[in-house]
Design a protein that fits this description.
The structure holds two protein chains of two kinds. By secondary structure, chain A is an alpha/beta fold. Chain A is built from three helices and eight strands, in the order βαβββαβαβββ. Chain A has a single domain, classed as Roll (2,3-Dihydroxybiphenyl 1,2-Dioxygenase, domain 1), CATH 3.10.180.10. In chain A, the strands form two sheets. Chain A has a four-stranded mixed β-sheet, covered by helices on one side. A four-stranded mixed β-sheet of chain A has the order 5-8-7-6. Chain A is globular. Chain B has one domain: Arc Repressor Mutant, subunit A (Orthogonal Bundle). Chain B is built from five helices and two strands. The radius of gyration of chain B is 17 Å and the shape is elongated. Classes of the chains: A alpha/beta, B mainly alpha. At the A-B interface, helix 2, strand 6 and strand 7 of A face helix 3 and strand 2 of B.
Amino acid sequence: MKINLASIFVNDQAKGLEFYTTKLGFEKKNDVPMGEFSWLTVVSPEARDGVELVLEPANHPAVGPFREALVADGIPFTSFAVEDVQAEYERLVGLGVVFTQPPTVMGPVTTAVLDDTCGNLIQIAAMNETSGA
Amino acid sequence: MPLTGKQSLALMVGVEELLKALADPTRAVILDELVEHTGQTLFEICNRLSSRHGINPSRQAISQHLQVLEAAGLVRSERSGRYKFHYVDTSPLAGIFERWPPGPTRPEP
């Protein structure tokens, strides 16, 4: 058994695809029309055969209150690995992306939290360089 | 003294609540972290306590600590769109020195 998909709810699939490709830099992998919605996935250009992120419709009534509560408390829905959190933060702020937490050293990792404009907060994280390791 | 009597009384009541709010190590650390960077979500506060101080109470417990700090006027929480941020305000601390001015008090000549 292995993990090949991870899902995230997006308010609007077209808007979600736009954000996850043009801002975060992922690539569209699957876009299979299924009635009102599509089976829509993106991958990282650093791992095109890696885990696919499914951009799921957020139309189930339970999704709204669940995500609103997470967002109010600043809790990210998931986390992506980056090389350099500060550089990625500056790049994304330049593209108009809003952060609820600027790059902050949290013990062994540095993290920042951004708004994906589709109803989620997303954490970006990198391990800190350890001296002498 | 007569001029400021009423205002001082209000401050005196506040000072006790203020000292109670400060007399908890977790709440003191929350203030330290908010002074370093004001305007944090509950998530960021919890992560800072856990990763920097090894303090791992439940999110709900931290939320309650924030309510105590807020009641003492040391923390203000503000909704900004869909997010809620917590800001530090140390101005009530002036009430402590107002009641007990710093430095030795000289005897009346």
